[in-house]
Amino acid sequence: MSEATGSRLEQHWQKLIEEESRIEEALRSLSQLRTEFLVDLGRQTRAASEEMASAAHALLETELDASQRSLVLRIQASATALFSSLDGIGPREPSTETAPQALPGEAPDTEEPVEPLAEPPQAGPAAAELDAPAIARLKQTLGKATRSMLPRLIDGYCRESQRLLAEIGAAAAESDTKTVHRATETLRVTSETFGASTLAEMARQIGDLARQEKLEDASFLIGRLDSEIQSTMAALFALKQELTA
């Protein structure tokens, strides 16, 4: 090989290296833009669901007929469930500890696996019996995403149920019938969605008594809420284990 030919090959090789470097930089920029877009989308979705739940709460304080109230309650429950489920779904804020996005030729991004719980939420209570048709409807709605989405929705429901339990207890202690009624109605609708018919009926009874301003008559049911929620969580834990096995 002549010296001139070797020089040309070396120049050509250097140009290829420089071009590859520019391509990699462009891909990194695109990856960063994608991450920023997903983070912003998640933030906006969270804000929208929170505003929807707040608007539904305000509507429940107005005069509504039975069908209107039922519709608003379902909207409120859906927004609450969405907001809760977003805790475990979607992008996180970018940080210096985040691994770099995969470039072409590297392993593609994969969905973060759902880790099954190590043990039931609380040892002791027997699992409640879930309404099979309700669970079937939920799975049908999620379709192919059932195995990845349903465990996270279960986690969101369990967190929200415990939050509502604390809210109901605190409001009952203050004789705040409006808050008890609102919280129990939310618990009722979300529990129906996850097939917890016994818990949903218990929440309905407490809500009816709160609306009639008869919280003293509801004290026994309120006292049983914790146990029923734990039983429901145990049943949902078993369902989650089936999905993540």
Task: Provide keyphrases for this structure.
about 240 residues, about 75% helix, 7 helices, mainly alpha
Give a description of the structure.
This protein has helices at residues 3-60, 66-85, 132-142, 146-173, 177-193, 197-211, 215-244. By secondary structure, the chain is mainly α. It has one domain (3-92, 126-244). The longest helix is centred in the first third of the chain and has 58 residues, at 3-60. The chain is elongated, with a radius of gyration of 26 Å. Mean pLDDT is 76; it is low at 88-119.
Sequence of secondary-structure elements: HHHHHHH
Residue fraction in strands: under 5%
Give the tally of β-strands.
Answer: 0
Q: How many DSSP helices?
A: 7
Summary, kept brief:
The protein has 245 residues and is mainly α. Helices cover 73% and strands 0% of the residues. The chain has one domain.
Itemize the secondary structure elements and their pairings.
Blueprint: H1 3-60, H2 66-85, H3 132-142, H4 146-173, H5 177-193, H6 197-211, H7 215-244
